[in-house]
Design a protein that fits this description.
- The chain has about 625 residues and is an alpha+beta fold.
- The chain folds into 4 domains: about 1-225, Heat Shock Protein 90; about 230-370, Ribosomal Protein S5, domain 2; about 400-480, Rossmann fold; about 490-620, Heat shock protein 90, C-terminal domain (Four Helix Bundle (Hemerythrin (Met), subunit A)), CATH 1.20.120.
- The protein contains 23 helices and 22 strands.
- The strands form 4 sheets. It has a 9-stranded mixed beta sheet with strand order 1-6-5-4-7-3-2-8-9. Strands 10-11-14-12-13 form a 5-stranded mixed beta sheet, sandwiched between helices.
- Helix 8 crosses helix 9 (about 365-380), helix 8 runs parallel beside helix 11 and helix 22 packs across helix 23 (about 610-620).
- The chain starts with a strand and ends with a helix.
- Mean pLDDT is about 85; it is low at about 95-100 and about 110-125.
Length: about 625
């Protein structure tokens, strides 16, 4: 060996290995699936790179992974003739976590203690070998490199590893696991067969096991898995278990998906899609730069991972693949960006995913609740991004409302419409910073009185979404914090009954208007309130409070929102204020009412201390 050195693992890898070695796992056999999956990925990468450089095959085009068991030495050896690794790649891929996200996951592990979910996530597949091994040795050589540029790597998983340059005749990677005491089950060839059949039967890379005939002392390699691409098989021949295991293979996810769809399309364009909806969100799902989950195959040759071109951003949680017969096998990323075929694929996949979600919502309410809890915020980006499918997206949205006693979003727009009051013309909603703020808003008082349901929207994205969601099934949406004719019509009876009072209070309203001048757009009486003395609303063409907050948080300079100041003439406090002759005292009370209204609407005041001083002053003088 040359260039031999001992290196310490990155600190996060040390923590990960500690968890691997010292924690108990209910499913230790997962390590074999992970290592075989890594070999399959190495073969896929070699196939792709060899399209432009056939010499990478090194006259060995029959790609496979081989497993041999040595009971005397207590070792399992997993060998592949895929792409292999250089010394730098070994250090980057095994010695450090790089961008795999494992550091974040370790923090989640330590806080939530879900150890069994560790395997299969965030690029830690190789480390799973330490679950059953006291030492792991690796020999590898990058395809196309001289035999002198092989790499040796070895570690006991105790914080450091040894790396050196070696000669390696064959390209690819050999991993030798030195098993711990008590792991004798993994020295049983029949057990190994069963594990591979269970987890890796769908992998297109042939998996072979070494079988020795003790009678004539010969050795042969027997293939264990079917080694056919699962998506190329007839749907009727594939079991649910096979679909689930294939999902785990391509996503490195430990949990089963909520639903999947397997479709073959023939005609002008021929392609196959296999799409999955996961049961939980990845840690970076809320990042709009999150990598897509669609893999591209051309004529069953793997071409591209995380192909974002095939699915809109608001469906970025979808996992799966597309296998096309129409794209050239040497397709480039530029072709993917400009090709009409790709655009047609995107339209078709989007339609298929929305159909999957509709089926899930109708046939399995509990699973759809899981979906909405995990991915509802992402789906809410849809109305702004995909006007062509806005009706289908709206049908999948879920809300909470004044009819609920919980913040859980379970109400569909169809549910709301079916419960609309007689004569109700619009779908009413309110946006706020939190569920509690929305539920307790004074804007709802009229709707409680009239027994009209109002949707309570408190997610940050809701205000943005509602700018694009204008109607559903021909019924328009209306914010209850905005002035609108439909709201005025609900008050026709009250306006007629209190016409004389309104006339009497005209001087009072003018007095307030002269006091506040241009600080408000208008001062008017309202009968929409029952328990609140005053409220501020915005005009129909004015920016809402929530939108102003969102844009301000994004660093945008905004024009001042001009509110309409609405006074409840039937409230005892207002009746008391109308009789105040002292101008300073009158001013304090009006300012207090306005500040209360702004606080209820905005959640904050420009000068909270001034509000407190004024309130204390009035308490003392009362």
């Amino acid at each position: 060996m040359q260039g031999k050195e001992t290196r310490n693992f990155q600190s996060e890898v040390k923590q990960l290995l500690h968890l691997m070695i010292h924690s108990l796992y209910s499913n230790k056999e997962i390590f074999l699936r992970e290592l075989i999956s890594n070999s399959s990925d190495a073969a896929d990468k070699l196939r792709f790179l060899s399209l432009s450089n056939p010499q990478l095959y090194e006259n060995d085009e029959k790609l496979r992974v081989r497993i041999s068991v040595n009971k005397e030495n207590r070792t399992i050896k997993i060998s592949d003739n895929g792409i292999g690794m250089s010394r730098e790649e070994v250090i980057d891929n095994i010695g450090t976590i790089a961008k795999s996200g494992t550091k974040s996951f370790i923090e989640a592990i330590n806080s939530k203690n879900y150890k069994d979910e560790l395997i299969g996530q965030f690029g830690v597949g190789f480390y799973s070998a330490f679950i059953v091994s006291e030492k792991v040795s690796l020999h590898t050589r990058l395809a196309g490199k001289p035999i002198e540029e092989g790499v040796f790597w070895e570690s006991t998983g105790e914080g450091n590893y040894t790396i050196a340059d070696i000669k390696k005749l064959d390209k690819g990677t050999d991993i030798t696991l030195h098993l711990r005491k008590g792991e004798n089950d993994f020295l049983d060839i029949w057990n190994i067969r069963n594990i591979i059949s269970k987890y890796s039967d769908h992998i297109s890379l042939p998996v072979e096991i070494e079988v020795k005939d003790e009678k004539d002392n010969t050795t042969k390699w027997e293939r264990i898995n079917q080694a056919t691409s699962l998506w190329t098989r007839n749907k009727s021949e594939i079991t649910d278990e096979e679909y689930n295991e294939f999902y785990k293979h391509i996503t490195k996810d430990f949990k089963e998906p909520l639903i999947w769809s397997h479709n073959k399309v023939e005609g002008k364009q021929e392609y196959t899609t296999l799409l999955y909806i996961p049961s939980h969100a990845q840690f970076d799902m809320w990042n709009r730069e999150h990598k897509g989950g669609i893999k591209l195959y051309v004529k069953r040759v793997f071409i591209l991972d995380n192909a974002k071109q095939f699915i809109p951003n608001y469906l970025r949680f979808v996992r799966g693949l597309i296998d096309s017969n129409d794209l050239p096998i040497n397709v480039s990323r530029e072709v993917l960006q400009d090709s009409k075929i790709i655009k047609n694929f995107c339209l078709a996949i989007t339609k298929r995913v929305l159909q999957m979600l509709e089926i899930l919502s109708k046939n399995n309410a509990e699973k759809y609740k899981i979906f909405w809890k995990e991915f509802g915020l992402v789906l809410k980006e849809g109305p702004a991004e995909d006007n062509n499918n806005i009706k289908n997206i709206a049908n999948l949205l879920r809300f909470t409302s004044t009819k609920n006693n919980t913040s859980e979003q379970t109400i569909s727009l169809n549910d709301y419409i079916n419960r609309m009051a007689e004569g109700q013309k619009k779908i009413y909603f309110i946006t706020a910073d939190s569920y509690i703020s929305a539920k307790s808003s004074p804007h709802l008082e009229l709707f409680h009185k009239k027994n009209i349901e109002v949707l309570l929207l408190s997610d940050r994205i809701d205000e943005w979404m509602m700018n694009y969601l204008n109607e559903f099934n021909g019924i328009s949406f209306q914010s209850v914090s905005k002035v609108d004719d439909s709201v005025n019509k609900l008050l026709d009876k009250e306006i007629k009954e209190h016409k004389e009072i309104e006339k009497q209070l005209e001087p009072f309203i003018k007095r307030i208007q002269n006091l506040l001048l241009s600080r408000v757009k208008e001062v008017r009486l309202t009968h929409r309130l029952t328990n609140t003395p005053a409220v501020v609303t915005t005009d129909s063409n004015e920016m809402t409070t929530q939108m102003a907050k969102l844009l301000s948080a994004a660093g945008r300079e905004l024009p001042e929102v001009k509110y309409i100041f609405e006074i409840n003439p039937n409230h005892p406090l207002v009746k008391r204020i109308t009789d105040i002759d002292n101008e300073d005292n009158f001013k304090d009370w009006i300012e207090l009412l306005l500040e209360q209204s702004l606080l209820a609407e905005c959640g904050t005041l420009e000068d909270p201390n001034k509000f407190i001083i004024r309130m204390n002053k009035l308490f003392i003088s009362s």
